[in-house]
Structures are given as C-alpha cells and as structure tokens.
Amino acid sequence: MAAELVRGQNHPLSRNRIEIRISADAPVVAGATLADESGRVRGADGVAHPGAPTLPGIEVSRQAAAEHRLAVDLDAMPETVHRVSVLIALPATPGGPTRFGALAAPRAAVTGLDGTEVAGYTLTGLDAESAVVALELYRRHTAWKIRAVGQGYAAGLPALLDDQGLPQAAELARGIEEAVARGLARSVPAHTTDADRSRRTAASASGPDLPGTAIAAGSPYDVQTPGNSAVRPAPPEGPAAAPPSGGPIDYTHPKRRQPPGPPAQGAPAPADGPVPPVAGDAVGWSMDERLYNQVWGMFEDLARSTAACRSAVDFADSRLEKELDQVLSDPRSRLGSAGDAAREAAQARHAQLVDQAQAALDRDLAQLTAESEVVEPALPPAYARWDNPAWHGYRVPTEPPMAVRLGDLHLPESDPLRIPMLVRLPLERGLWIDSGAPDESRSEEAGELRHLALQTAVALAARLLAVHPAGEFGVRVIDPAGAGASALAPLTGTGALDAPPATGATGVAGTLGPLTERVDLVQMAVRGGAADALPPGLDTSRQLLIVHDFPHGFDDRAVTQLRYLADEGPDVGVHLLLVADREDAAAYGPLLDPLWRSLMRLTPVPDDHLADPWVGHAWTYEPCLVPPGSHVLQRVLTQVVAARTKLA
Fold first, then answer.
1. Is the pTM higher than 0.90?
2. Tens of pLDDT along 463-478?
3. Backbone phi, psi, residue 420, to 5°
4. How are beta strands 83-89 and 17-35 bridged, if at all?
5. Distance (Å, rounded) from C-alpha 607 to C-alpha 486?
6. Read out DSSP for 495-546?
7. Distance CA 152, CA 128 (A)
C-alpha cells in the first residue's frame, strides 16, 4: 500500500528507478536540483529544468503542464549527489495564477515504472507561494529515502534557487521562464476530441534502442501537453471551454499524426503529410519497457474514448426522452403538426449527437488500429501472439522480461481491434483458468471446454518457460486423475517439466509437501536476514505449479497447503495456475472463497468478465492459443530444454 506523507515525513525507497508524478489544477513548471552532502547546489549544471531537461539520473519536462512525470534513475546519480530536490513553480503566463493559494493543493507522487505508487504527498497549506520544493530524495548510507518538504517561496523561483545556494539565481530563474515561454510557443492546436496522448512521449530521435539499453538520444519527456491526463469531453451542447490563448487545447502527442485520411473537421492539415505511428513511442529505458507502456497506453486510450462515446450517447438518449416527455405533457403540442415537428426536431438532435459521438470514436479507433498494426509485429516473444514471426527467430533469453502476455482484450465497440493483456513479472497473483461450462451445455461440450482450459494453461506455462533464462523457471503439474495427458503432451513430450505429472492422492501430497517446505524455508531465511543459510541443493528457481481438475485427489490437508501456496508462494517464487470448475469444489462451501478471490480468473473462450480501473468497462478476454497445426510450442520448448541441459 502506498504511503501518504505529511510535511516533514520520510519514507524508504524500495527501488531506484522511479517516476515522480506532479499533478496540479494549472500548468506548472517542474524541475529538480542536485545537491552535495552539505545540501549545496554547486552551479546551474546541477539544475534540471525545461531549458536543460536532462542530467545524469534525472529527466524533466521541457514545458509547463498540469501533469508531469519526472524520470529518475538513482543508480545513475553521480556519487557526489546526496540530495535531489523536486521543485514546482507557477509560470509567468498572462492571465495565469500567481500563487498556489488560488489553486487546489498540488500533489506529488513517487511511483514505480509500472505506475504503482510508492508514496504520495499533497502540498496543503500553500497561500502566497509561487514556487515550492515538493519532495526531496536523499541518501542515507547506501540507500535512498523520500522526504515530504512542502517549502514554499512567495518570491518565486529566484528565492527558491537562491535558498539552494545557487549563484546568480535570478538569472537562472529568468532562463527557466524563457525556456517555458518557448515551449508554450511550440504548442500546436488540435481538436479537443482527439484521444488522450498526454501520457505518451516521443521515441528516440535516432531510432528505437536495443532491448536493455538506456535512452541516449531523444528525450522521453520531449514534450508534455498541458491539460488533464484524461480527456473530459465537452458537453454535447455548447462549445468546450477554450484555454486562455483562445484556441482549442491540444491533447494529442506533438509528434503523433492522425492515420492516413482526411483531417478531422476544423483540424489543420499537416504540412508534411500524415506520419504513421511508431512502435516503442512511449516512456521507457529499453525497447521492451517502451512497448509495454505503449500497449497499456493504448488500453487506456481505448477505455476513455469508449467511455466518452457511451457517455455522449447516454446523454443524447436522456435528452431525447426528456424532450419527448415535454411534448406529451403540453396539450398544445401533443397532437397535430406542431407535435410532429417537435418530435422530429428532438429525434434529429438526438441523431446528430449520436453521430458526432460515433464519429469521434471511429477516428480514435482508426488511430489505435493503425498503431496496433505497427506495434503488434514489433513485440518481443514475451508480449507476442504465438503466430507472431518473433517466435520463428526465438532464442533462449539471458534475462527475464518485465512482463508477459496473458491474452487479448477488446470492447464491443472496438471489434476487431485487440489490445494485448500484459502483466508484470514476477506474477503477484496466481492464475485460474475457469473450466466450468454453462448449465445448459451438453456433457461433450463441457469435456471439450475442460480440455481447452488445460491447453490454455499449457500455452501460458510454455510462454513463461520460454521467456525466462534457462534454469531460472520450472513447471510442475498435478493431474490427479491423469485426464490431461493429451493436452499436456507439449510439456511432457519435450521434457520441459521438472518431473512427470503427479497423479493420485500420493502424487498430490508428494508435490505439495516439498513446495510448502520450500516456501517456509525461504520465508524464514529472508525474514531472518540469512538467505545464505538455506540448505544446500534447495531449488530456488521460480516454480509454476499447474493443478488440473481441482479438487479431485485433494484431501483437507492438501487443500490447506494449496491455499498456503496461493497466499505466500508468489513472494518467494512459487506461483499457482489452477485449472478448475468452481462448482466441482462446491462441497467445501465458503472455505475456498478466499482461494478463488486471490486468483486472477481467465477463461479458455472469449468472456467479458474483466473490468478496467478507470471507467469499469466489461472487457472481453481472449486467451492466446497456439494456431491449429502449428508446431511452434514444440520448437520453442525443445530449445528451452536443450539450453537447460547444457547448464546441468
């Protein structure tokens, strides 16, 4: 759980590559100063600001915005840097606010690169201040910590920089203001109904980096657009509020263009023609990370664009109903030509609003589809479908990826657009492939569904084996009745399993016992700070346990052990993949409810059971299965086993 800090409070940092996210009610300038052990900033080259956005270990935005993401790599900080102060200031723009007291309290949050918040701080109590030191990252021996500062300066940036010990602070502050003014002058007007691209950034100007390399040229924070992080569509009636400059707000990425085709009504035609989307066009330190962020950015865009369309249609429906009620309630217009004309006018307004909403969604879908067409072929094996050419050139990796693909997601309005469903590694939750069939299904259909569920589990296990270095990931299978032999053939036939599938009650106990003991031993060693005291020969590689047809073959003790592995296993490298029909375990009653809730439910056939955290859409999940007749699974697993044999 993220820590919510108060002024003066500190908090340990568990990771050294982070983002600092600033949000405010108006565009602000974000920057940072790098100080030595005594807290002094030695010169202007120790200040990251819009005019000099990149310093060793930190990168800031080039212009003022209501939201910022500052990229920080503490491992890359010079050894002389002991304190990083994150500052925000109000730019000197005509008509803009001059003090933070006139705005809602800004907020600074420290997050991981996946967006998981570590700590946050809301800067309350500000009044006349126009510049503030929000947070401070500081060394404590060999570790880094965060401190909530909230120190404001009514005299603005010059006073803040002067307090940091900078010579010629006033001149530096003027330089920052000039850089901000140049950034604002570069803003390009566009329609407010474009999909939100404010969270995206330009790829390196010199082309995509190879996986594992840091971005060297082309700032990932090249331009940040002003405004909110999510597009709030203007009400159907009346124009959207214009920004102080009088033009429409630009919510699109400055280096992104619409897909080929005529420009939207009122949008300026690009001077040099349409520019196609680029794979890896997102924030990240490697190509894998940029692709991961780009995929989930596409997911967010589709969620918000669809929500905007649905909201507009709902509004049109409710307004039509209200207008028709008014017509019927007025005796003068209930009958005759006047009533018919009023009804036709209401229906025409309704149709116009619906058409406008659909046109905006179609435009966003066209852009996302064009982006998907270039992103999908560029995905590495961990993110790619089984029919992707990336698997033809597969080689056993030397490092695990940051995420893995579990399947595809789509919405009814976006068919046939598919967004890859990526989850971070290591898995924080176990997985459950639901093999349950509808009550009206025939017995042969239910049997086919159970077989397909195990095939889905095998494809996921093979992917996890393939994307980890040789010997760093293993798979065990419990198949009490031996009913899954045909579906398990790719794993058993290639020798990819650590041991043959366990059958019967004896096999269940013989598999769960050692895994439970391993979790106990590793937990005790980690908590006691004695990781080197583990018994010799203990396998510490990550393990995936596939349990087929649960709870067949499980007694009360085995059920308790399985629940223990589901709860405690992921933290020490033991992961659970359950292939089961919940109705089969109905005899246990509510005893197993915590188990089902702790697992991520997936389905072997398309099903709309997943909801996003933003607007709660019911997303349809489709598993990633091997195309019929393809031998890609056998080829990949054969290479995995061969690489593992060389290490033995």
1. no
2. 999 999 999 999 999 9
3. -60, 135
4. antiparallel
5. 25
6. T-SSSPPB-HHHHHHHHHHHHHHHHHHHHHHHHTT-GGGSPTT---SEEEEE
7. 9
